[in-house]
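sry for the spam today, last one i promise. struct tokens for design, 332 residues
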């Protein structure tokens, strides 16, 4: 192990600093092309919080071939998980929160940064409706084939106009959980054409074995380049397709994924919620790649069951949660 490959120290900064570091590990071609104008967003009625909660409490029944596809390939893209109005309501709130935190307009191209926010759901009833939604919880549990899932964290990810690639990686490297029953629901807050850099997945799931020996480097772009090279040598297939309004992708923690840069004039905003099998533990030795994970599981120590009050069971929901959610609806 050398200085550049030793990742054993815990991350000692915040999660925005983590993302600033992490996107710096991506190889980018120098491009001087002008940013493309994103299509106008549809002018449609925006639902109330009540309506969003009612929509997301409805189950979404997966077809067997969607489950089979996920288990073979490590990802699946599902249309109409959210209605167009629910997506645009989400976008409005995420833009408001990003402006408040970073004091910039996320759509402003002068910044070209990858902005992130997390742990928004505890204090924000609208975001909570998406993050703890029975719909996302149920789809996640069904894809993993487990009886119950908990939330690991919510993650608002805004790739500003002009921001470059997300490096190749798999989330098993990131989440300090001792299980592979982990799935991230990556929910775009607007349509994502190719030029905006949709999340893209290498498949099938076991392609991670081809790159097991590529050593992670904590500076420079060597790891990202190493993965690109091996995937290309092995002719690995990559799904890089646009996202329609309301489409959500789900990826397993062993799924290798990346995203191209955002070459449009609109911020590519997504809400990425990660769910894991109830009963899983925190691994014994989380690394710096796990970022500030204790923020997501307060007072949970390495080796403990990952079940802090910040990791509620999102599926199945019990009667108490139903009552709590209708209380929130009354207040909101
Ligand atoms: O939004 C991105 O570009 C990366 C997101 C990602 O890697 C994830 O949510 O697992």
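last one done:
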């Amino acid at each position: 192990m050398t200085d550049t490959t030793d990742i054993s120290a815990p991350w000692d900064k915040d999660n925005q600093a983590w993302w600033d570091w992490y996107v710096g590990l991506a190889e980018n071609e120098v491009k001087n092309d002008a940013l493309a104008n994103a299509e106008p967003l549809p002018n449609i009625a925006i639902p109330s919080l009540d309506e969003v909660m009612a929509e997301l409490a409805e189950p979404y029944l997966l077809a067997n071939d969607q489950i089979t596809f996920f288990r073979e390939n490590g990802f699946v893209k599902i249309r109409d998980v959210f209605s167009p109005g629910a997506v645009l309501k989400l976008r409005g709130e995420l833009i408001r929160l990003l402006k408040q935190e970073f004091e910039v307009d996320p759509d402003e191209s002068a910044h070209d940064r990858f902005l992130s926010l997390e742990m928004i759901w505890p204090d924000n009833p609208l975001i909570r409706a998406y993050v703890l939604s029975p719909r996302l919880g149920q789809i996640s549990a069904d894809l993993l084939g487990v009886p119950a899932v908990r939330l690991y964290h919510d993650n608002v990810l805004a790739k500003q106009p002009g921001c470059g690639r997300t490096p190749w990686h798999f989330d098993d490297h990131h989440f300090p959980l001792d299980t592979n029953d982990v799935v991230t629901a990556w929910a775009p807050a607007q349509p994502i054409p190719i030029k905006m850099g949709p999340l893209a997945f290498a498949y099938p799931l076991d392609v991670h074995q081809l790159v097991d020996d590529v050593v992670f480097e904590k500076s420079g772009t060597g790891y990202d380049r190493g993965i690109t090279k091996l995937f290309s040598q092995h002719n690995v297939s990559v799904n890089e397709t646009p996202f329609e309004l309301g489409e959500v992708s789900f990826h397993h923690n062993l799924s290798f994924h990346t995203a191209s840069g955002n070459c449009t004039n609109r911020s590519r905003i997504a809400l990425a919620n990660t769910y894991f099998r109830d009963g899983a533990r925190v691994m014994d030795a989380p690394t710096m790649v796990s970022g500030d994970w204790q923020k997501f599981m307060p007072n949970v120590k390495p080796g403990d069951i990952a079940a802090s009050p910040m990791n509620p069971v999102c599926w199945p929901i019990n009667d108490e949660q139903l009552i709590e959610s209708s209380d929130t609806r009354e207040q909101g």
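The chain has one domain: 44-331. ok im logging off now
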